[in-house]
Specification:
3 helices, globular, about 250 residues, mainly beta, 10-stranded antiparallel β-sheet, 17 strands
Length: about 250
């Protein structure tokens, strides 16, 4: 077992989408300028048929760890960006744990459910450097829904960077018992992949950490809103030669 499972769960949860007005207005503004500047908004990690988060049935939560999806259905590396741009928001699908389950996870992981986004620059031997991180969001008021959070400061990403999610304490954003084509990687120590009690969350900017643990048949249920930098539509002016500058 690679996550903490709460025993004896029987109830079914609900999912109610929550979209803050501020983010909606921001995305509408981006969409208005996108055709001219090619700043097309991309939702990293979005798939056609996302599964529900596990709680309260077979309730499992991700705790004190940073992770990202390697495969989501048939898409490989869904959170690795292909060009420079900004991450401006993220959405997270939250299960609806019962009160006794919430108390269990609060006690186990040292507080109420909190989460943040993390930007990773991949290195050799599965070592990733933390280049940026969002503010911390408390999500207990959004259980059973899929809220979207606008970041107070956009996070810069470059080609090849990975957008990960960090459970500061714990978060019920975990879908389980899925197909083999659902794979995620975590920041836990490679020799302790099943030790979910370790505090493996990467939260120091500039730090290096080995992401040595891979898990199958499970999925971290989040997406990230990526706005690529616009491409030039006019050629850059040619530089004059040295001889011309002397004239």
């Amino acid at each position: 077992m690679f996550q903490i499972r709460f025993p004896h769960t029987t109830c079914a949860g609900s999912r109610i989408p929550v979209k803050p007005v501020l983010l909606t207005l921001m995305l509408l503004a981006l969409a208005a300028v996108a055709p001219a500047a090619e700043a097309r908004v991309i939702e990293l990690g979005a798939t056609a048929s996302p599964p529900p988060a596990s709680c309260p049935d077979d309730c499992q939560a991700v705790g004190r760890v940073t992770g990202y999806q390697l495969r989501a259905e048939n898409e490989r590396n869904p959170f690795q960006v292909t060009r420079r741009g900004k991450i401006v928001a993220f959405s997270i699908t939250l299960g609806e744990p019962r009160r006794d389950q919430i108390e269990f996870f609060d006690d186990l992981f040292g507080g109420t459910a909190k989460v943040r986004l993390s930007i990773l620059r991949p290195g050799t031997k599965k070592r990733h450097r933390l280049t940026g991180q969002s503010e911390i969001f408390e999500v207990k008021d959004y259980f059973g829904s899929t809220p979207t959070f606008a970041l107070s400061r956009p996070l810069t990403v470059r080609k090849g960077y990975i957008v990960a999610i960090t459970a500061v304490t714990w978060v019920p954003t975990f879908a389980v018992s899925l197909a083999e084509n659902q794979v995620w990687r975590s920041s836990r120590d490679a020799d302790k992949c099943d030790d979910v009690r370790q505090n493996a969350a990467q939260q120091t900017r500039g730090s290096l950490r080995t992401y040595g643990c891979i898990y199958r048949t499970a999925r971290l249920m989040y997406t990230a809103t990526f706005v690529p930098d616009p491409r030039r539509t006019t050629p850059a002016p040619e530089r004059s030669s040295r001889a011309e500058r002397r004239r």
